[in-house]
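The aim of this short unit is practical: by the end, you should be able to scan a pair of folded records and say something sensible about each. We start with the first protein, listed as its amino acid sequence and then its structure tokens.
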Amino acid sequence: MGFRTGILFIFFLAIASGLSAAAAQQLYTPQKGSAERKAILNTLRPALEARLGKPVEFAVSFMNASRGWVFLGVSPQRPGGGKIRPADTVFAGQLEYMDGLNTLALLRFDYGRWNLIDHAIGPTDAFWQGDPLYQRIPQEILTLR
């Protein structure tokens, strides 16, 4: 099952249960080029560069923010859209257990800056399901829009 297929199925169930009007109003996507979006991606960047090598840019699949939290999905790439060769990363030889280098991340705005709380590179399932931390965050960010 592919990254988007599996994730979409899980989120379809969440969306089918319906979001409250208040939750939907609080959910937003930081705009392209905004200082907030740049700060979020720059917070994630060192964790991925440590595993994938430098430099890393992101193609953002989704970025859901609400009440000081953000949950995002990105595809890491080299500047200008260049492909990252898995053989040149710490994941060499592990790709059969991964859904590529697609990455999901959870960040929290605290102490005047964004902080990386959790992330997974190449997840093949909803790793956050059953994790008590994810039950305490705004549930509306755990949807694809």
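Turning to the second protein, read its sequence before its tokens, just as you did above.
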Amino acid sequence: MAARLDRIVVVDIEATCWEGEPPPGQVREIIEVGVCVLNVGTLERGERVSLLVRPTRSEVSPFCTTLTTLTADQVAAGRPFTETCAEIGKRFSARERCWASWGDFDRKVFAEQCDRESVPYPFGPTHLNVKTLHGLAHSLPHEIGMMAAIAQTSRKHDGTHHRGHDDAWNIAGLLAAILAAARGWPSDRGGI
């Protein structure tokens, strides 16, 4: 089945992380899924959604809290990964639509965790790598990070960097600007 292209489900994840290798017995786990749905027709961004996920095989390190602002107590109150995936599939029709992220990290981490925990993958097969698309649209010699792309396009980051819902919002804005340019629209169309 071909993906519906009326909306793009923009996703940004935060995962447990450490300054070096994970401590023995711990693995990288998703602790937040940020979602912002982009209306393809109007290029308007929907609400910022933060879904906190309770880790079961790792702990939130001080390094992770410094990076993401998420604490162990906050994510302990999150929902199980299985429930989060089910909500993404149902609430955003993510299996039927194109979904996007900045780079391929989010796609890989989702696939790895779904495989490891035998959880149905919440997305359809059509993934849009906005990092690559941005590099191509701006004739860059290589891909750049989201914050560099925001600076390059004279935009301002809205929210807290490394919080899933804020980064998803900003990625959706960068994607909307690329689509606006492709259509010959002004970059401020649709509140982007």
